[in-house]
């Protein structure tokens, strides 16, 4: 069983199945990409494993958005180097690949810094993964970071699609990639390239396939998802609102979400979709990054704080029960105490159900990194602490406001105890339910009885459902 074949296209000879361990960093787009890479590798005879020591191939799907995320990859590669050496001593090989945005941004440099790496592959070239691995097997060190024009996942053969196992009741679906916005802090336009929308027919096809495999909730993904544009079956131009209408008609799909959006691309059609489609969850991630007009301008966000607040008003007018989440950066170059207070004020005014906040991290090659007036780490840390405390309070208040209300919950998995199940609220909170409420995949209506630190408890969830006397 330990025999390993060098021929990447025919791994099954001799009965030796190969194992791939994929570690995913960063955003949901990477989660989606890792799943598709795993599917593509299944065709080459690779089984996924959760145990890195067992892997014949280790793939790190990396994130470059902040320095911390990128540095984590190098420390992980340090550990993998030791593992690889141990395996080599046992006469077994372990190939190591770096995928994702660090691969795209740093390319060849990774090979110089981490000699254990055999393959560097950027997000635009994942369809070349099997071929790249064959070259690695032949002894080459491979760097694939070109921009390809083809759809990187168009190459999944149909026969293989059938073998793809159902992956639970929720799934991501990439509809758009890349970004043309060039916010001055952000590496995405450089690592993920220009904005590209997947054609409507392909998206509908993938959504149908997901629904057929038991998926009930689909989250449309894109770095700038609401900039998605395409044509309907009759050749008329449609935006994301139109796409959501089209997907809402697919049998089996009970919930739709999309992320991440830019305020500038929230058009009337999309806002109206929140009014007209019950299947579209009333929860919107709409990052604003800062509440200061001066900082927003320096960030090249191309809107001011008042415009964002007006937009929120229009969205709330369309869908009264919508809850909002956002992203914030503190300590962007030039951010004064007064600018930061503007951010605090904006957060207070909007009232978020949840939000992510980060210290500004200068990224090589972005305009922000070259700006004057960088803010000290200590000041960034102080501001982050205050902002996060405010956001935490809002999140707690939002969860508390749900106690006593009834809501639809999609059951996702068994709970920690036999008498419990775990589902998702419309606002993405985990909800603990009684096992008598239904089965995995069911949408059930429950009353919220209490809040836990990171989840909600439905009425009756804490009592064992079948008592034996
Ligand atoms: N520093 C800190 N945070 C950043 N983000 C993006 N780039 C940076 C950076 N250089 C944050 C933004 C974005 C989220 C995904 O990550 O808030 O919305
Ligand atoms: Fe980055 Fe701005 Fe594009 Fe979002 S909109 S991916 S923050 S450049």
From TrEMBL:
Highest taxon of the lineage: Bacteria
Task: Name the residues that bind [4Fe-4S] cluster 1.
Answer: 27, 63, 101
Provide the E.C. number(s) assigned to this enzyme.
2.8.4.3
One Gene Ontology cellular component: cytosol
Q: What Pfam families does the record tag this protein with?
A: Radical_SAM, TRAM, UPF0004
Domain named MTTase N-terminal: residues: 18-138
Q: Which GO terms describe its molecular function?
A: 4 iron, 4 sulfur cluster binding; metal ion binding; tRNA-2-methylthio-N(6)-dimethylallyladenosine(37) synthase activity
Alphabetically ordered keywords of this record: 4Fe-4S, Cytoplasm, Iron, Iron-sulfur, Metal-binding, S-adenosyl-L-methionine, Transferase, tRNA processing
Where [4Fe-4S] cluster 2 binds, per the record, is at: 179, 183, 186
Where does the TRAM domain lie? 400-462
Q: Which reaction does it catalyse?
A: N(6)-dimethylallyladenosine(37) in tRNA + (sulfur carrier)-SH + AH2 + 2 S-adenosyl-L-methionine = 2-methylsulfanyl-N(6)-dimethylallyladenosine(37) in tRNA + (sulfur carrier)-H + 5'-deoxyadenosine + L-methionine + A + S-adenosyl-L-homocysteine + 2 H(+)
Q: How is the cofactor bound?
A: Binds 2 [4Fe-4S] clusters. One cluster is coordinated with 3 cysteines and an exchangeable S-adenosyl-L-methionine.
List the Gene3D superfamilies. Answer: Methylthiotransferase, N-terminal domain, tm_1862 like domain
InterPro entries named among the record's database cross-references: Elp3/MiaA/NifB-like_rSAM, Methylthiotransferase, Methylthiotransferase_CS, Methylthiotransferase_N, Methylthiotransferase_N_sf, MiaB_methiolase, rSAM, rSAM_horseshoe
Cofactor(s), names only, from the UniProt record: [4Fe-4S] cluster
Radical SAM core domain: residues covered: 165-397
Coarse class of the protein's main subcellular location: cytoplasm
Give the residue spans that cross the bilayer: none
Q: Where in the cell is it found?
A: Cytoplasm
Record carries keyword 4Fe-4S: yes
HAMAP family to which the protein is assigned, alphabetical: tRNA_metthiotr_MiaB (MF_01864)
Say what the protein does.
Catalyzes the methylthiolation of N6-(dimethylallyl)adenosine (i(6)A), leading to the formation of 2-methylthio-N6-(dimethylallyl)adenosine (ms(2)i(6)A) at position 37 in tRNAs that read codons beginning with uridine.
Per the record, the similarity remark reads: Belongs to the methylthiotransferase family. MiaB subfamily.
The record's note on quaternary structure and interaction partners says:
Monomer.
Which NCBIfam families does the record associate with it?
A: miaB-methiolase, MiaB/RimO family radical SAM methylthiotransferase
Under which name does UniProt file this protein? tRNA-2-methylthio-N(6)-dimethylallyladenosine synthase
What is the species listed in this Swiss-Prot or TrEMBL entry? Consotaella salsifontis
Q: Which gene encodes it?
A: miaB
